[in-house]
Write a sequence for this structure.
């Protein structure tokens, strides 16, 4: 890798870091005091993973998802879980009782 290629790669990485910082700051305007949660949720999205937000009422879980979706230009939906809710109840996948 030439010095020019290395410099271009470093510049790209710095630009990506600046964009990520701007995204975190924008989400932080809607969700106060949850910097670590914002960071972890963004890491999961960037890694192509999933996030299950669990916590007491009033901890801005829905607001976090809404802000992330708005800032990243994504669709979002809220699912209210109960202890007996199963994945098939949400996804409608086959199984007992379907059909």
């Amino acid at each position: 890798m030439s010095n020019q290629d290395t410099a271009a790669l470093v510049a790209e990485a710095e630009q990506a870091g600046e964009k990520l910082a701007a995204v975190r700051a924008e989400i932080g305007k809607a969700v106060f005091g949850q910097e670590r949660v914002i960071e972890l949720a963004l890491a999961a999205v960037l890694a192509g993973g999933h996030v299950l937000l669990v916590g007491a009422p009033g901890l801005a879980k829905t607001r976090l998802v809404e802000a992330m979706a708005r800032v990243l230009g994504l669709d979002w939906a809220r699912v209210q879980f109960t202890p007996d809710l199963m994945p098939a109840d949400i996804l409608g996948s086959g199984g007992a009782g379907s059909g």
About this structure: DSSP finds four helices and no strands in the chain. The mean pLDDT is 86. The CA atoms of residues 57 and 63 lie 12 Å apart.
